[in-house]
Amino acid sequence: MVKLLGDGTFGRVLLGTDQQNNRQVAIKVIRDVKRYAENAKIEANILKDIRRVDPEGLCSRSAIMYDTFFHERHYCLVFEALGCSLYDFLKRNNFRGFWLQDIQSFAEQMLESLRFLYTVLQMTHTDLKPENILLQTTDPPRPAEFSRECGKEGRKAKNRGSHAYMRPASSQIRLIDFGNATYKDEHHSSIINTRQYRGPEVILSLGWDARSDIWSVGCILMELYTGELLFGTHENLEHLALMERVLEPLPSSMLASAPKGVRDKYVLPSSSAGQLVLNWPGGASSSSSERHVRQQRSLSELIAPSHRHFAEFTGHLLTLDPAKRPQAAEARRHGFFCQYYPD
């Protein structure tokens, strides 16, 4: 063992040296709790499936799992050693966001990963977020200029005079935490994703498919750009209201298709015959919730005018109606990837 890399609800991750193969490895040690161990075994089986068709992780961008073993009563998974998560890198940069050039590379790799996982394995990740995307390199970051200061005025002020801005030594990434990944023919849980990366179809109980991962990618890329959550909320109705504020009104057809219990909580008939609208601000839980939504800026306001192709691209990923949202292969063909960004 070399050092502790991190702690989580499931257990902890240790950096170790595999002396037999002369390499460093990350060992995910699962707590001695039955459900955590069972979930880890499910993840191990999924990772074995991925490695069978993509041994080096070049297409899936998944972290390579070398082995599993028991240490006393603890189930352990052995992975290649990787760098920090994109969230931790953001945090170390005082949440100032990444260069758009790096974001472009992250987006390309994420979409290629999702395309591969779905077309080859019929798999949806279901829990994409910056914490579950790691830099592949363990090389130290390098100082760089950062001319774009995004986010709220308070954050701008906080960043002035802060420590040097750092850029990753490489923009290559790996995806982790496949414990909740779901195959197309498996039972689909009604709730997936960490709240802030959850698509509107999940909140409205309309069912979901691989396009739910595409929505998560849109949320992640905006967070990597601004340094802030795109949808900072813990309430369903407020979450839906924020989506409308950032993007556009939810389609009446989606609201009409929601189960009656969901419609009763979140939906109202509009003045237009047969049309339904979100019950906002009437259904707001508090005046502070209403104010939070009102202060939210639209997608175009969050992105610099010189980055309009990025605004168009993220808007495409964040299409509210999942039936109109692009699959990964289609999204990868967007004109955003033909642009060069020096910043």
Q: What brief labels describe this structure?
A:
two-stranded antiparallel ribbon, Phosphorylase Kinase, domain 1, 343 residues, five-stranded antiparallel β-sheet, alpha+beta, 13 helices, globular, Transferase(Phosphotransferase), domain 1, single chain
Can you summarize the main beta sheet? Answer: 5 strands, antiparallel
- How helix-rich are the residues, as a percent range? 25-40%
CATH class of the largest domain: Mainly Alpha
CATH superfamily of the largest domain: Transferase(Phosphotransferase) domain 1
Strand content: 15-25%
Measured on Cα atoms, how large is the radius of gyration? 21 Å
Query: How many strand units?
Result: 13
- Strands of the largest sheet, in order across it? 1-2-3-5-4
What's the N-to-C terminus distance?
40 Å
Number of helices: 13
Topology:
Layout: E1 3-7, E2 11-18, E3 23-30, H1 34-53, E4 65-71, E5 74-80, H2 86-92, H3 100-121, E6 123-124, E7 133-135, E8 142-143, H4 153-159, E9 166-167, E10 173-175, E11 182-183, H5 200-203, H6 211-226, H7 236-246, H8 252-257, H9 260-266, E12 267-269, E13 276-278, H10 287-294, H11 299-302, H12 308-317, H13 328-332
Antiparallel strand pairs: 1-2, 2-3, 3-5, 4-5, 6-11, 7-10, 8-9, 12-13
Helix pairs in contact: 3-6, 6-12, 7-10
